[in-house]
Design brief:
single chain; mainly alpha; Growth Hormone, Chain: A; two-stranded antiparallel ribbon; 16 helices; about 75% helix; disordered C terminus; MFS_trans_sf
Length: about 350
């Protein structure tokens, strides 16, 4: 249930991010700004997430429950500010609401929970579930915005296609907060270790890498001794790296220094993918309206289809990787194909 709550948090956050995309330009115009200001409104959430990732990462060294509760409260307040900006006629309140939503991003906690608390045998499926939840939220956000086409007033509060996304997400985060408070269980920190298989005969932990290396052992003893020394050095370095990774990152610089070169390359690839995607999504409503005269519903359907295309590819990759991890030691051909 705790893993499910983390995945639901991821899903709701992605819905929260993209539910405003089809209507952000109309909202900006209604407040007296240019339609292209929607890029600032959408991007402000991601800017705030840069800072929230640091303190949420440090906070998750001590607890998972408290950061998720704090995240839900901040996101609730952010969405209320976003919805109230229409009646307050304030673009500043609108952007503050989106900044609060970004400050409530707990995606660092969600990833940390999967890496530390999910058993190794299902960690790949959990990671695939994280990506699937993100992609599904990216598709459901615009689709939900396309359905919220009503316009009415209750007392002095206006409900229309621009403000309804904020009110709907505020209710969603309130319900999630109640579910989280009732069902989430804080994991035992003593169990946050890598689950390596054990040797049934001796009861000692067996490293899968050692089993694989045994298939190609050198014939000369000198080579064996040298290889053992290299392995000892690698183990010492990996243990030091693991200890360093447990330390809380108190700043962006300290977080960057904890990254290995391989992780930096992966993050650069991730950055370029997100960069291209956000350019497409953020200005999609402006471009399609200017050149093709699309309405909000058409933009919502277009963005929903884009989000859904990620799911089948992610399902194939996640299942294939899980098969590789489970059976990679028993078949060389399967390893080569993976």
């Amino acid at each position: 249930m705790s893993l499910m709550l983390n995945l639901v948090n991821t899903f709701l956050y992605m819905v929260n991010t993209y539910i405003i995309v089809p209507t952000a330009d109309d909202y900006s115009v209604s407040l007296g700004a240019a339609s292209t200001v929607c890029g600032v409104v959408i991007g402000s959430m991601a800017v705030a997430q840069i800072f929230s990732s640091v303190y949420f990462s440090a906070w998750s060294n001590k607890s998972y429950f408290k950061p998720l509760v704090f995240s839900s409260i901040v996101l609730f307040l952010g969405n209320v500010c976003y919805a109230m900006a229409y009646d307050m006629k304030s673009l500043t309140v609108l952007i503050i609401g989106r900044l609060l939503c970004g400050m409530g991003s707990a995606r660092a906690v969600n990833r940390r929970y999967i890496s530390d608390c999910v058993p190794a045998r299902i960690r790949m499926q959990a990671s695939a579930g994280f990506v699937s939840a993100s992609a599904l939220g990216m598709a459901c956000g615009p689709a939900l915005a396309g359905l919220l086409q009503w316009k009415f007033k209750i007392y002095m509060v206006t409900f229309n296609q621009s403000t309804l996304p904020g009110w709907v997400m505020a209710v969603a985060w309130l319900l999630y907060l109640i579910w989280l408070w009732v069902s989430f269980k804080e994991p035992n920190r003593a169990t946050e270790v890598n689950e390596a298989p054990q040797n049934p005969a001796s009861g000692q932990t067996v490293d899968i890498g050692q089993v694989e290396n045994g298939l190609a052992q050198p014939l000369l003893m000198d080579s064996v001794d040298k290889q053992n020394e290299d392995e000892d050095e690698e183990v010492d370095e990996s243990e030091e790296a693991a200890d360093d990774s447990r330390k809380p990152a108190t700043s962006i610089g300290s977080a960057y220094r904890l990254l290995t070169p391989s992780v930096k390359v992966q993050l650069l690839i991730y950055f370029m993918l997100k960069y291209a995607m956000e350019i497409l999504l953020s200005e999609s409503s402006v471009i399609t309206n200017h050149y093709f005269s699309w309405n909000t519903s058409a933009v919502a359907i277009f963005l929903a289809i884009l989000g859904l295309t990620v799911l089948p590819v992610n399902a194939v990759v996640g299942n294939t990787s899980a098969i590789c991890l489970r059976t990679g030691n028993s078949s060389w051909s399967l390893k080569l194909r993976c």
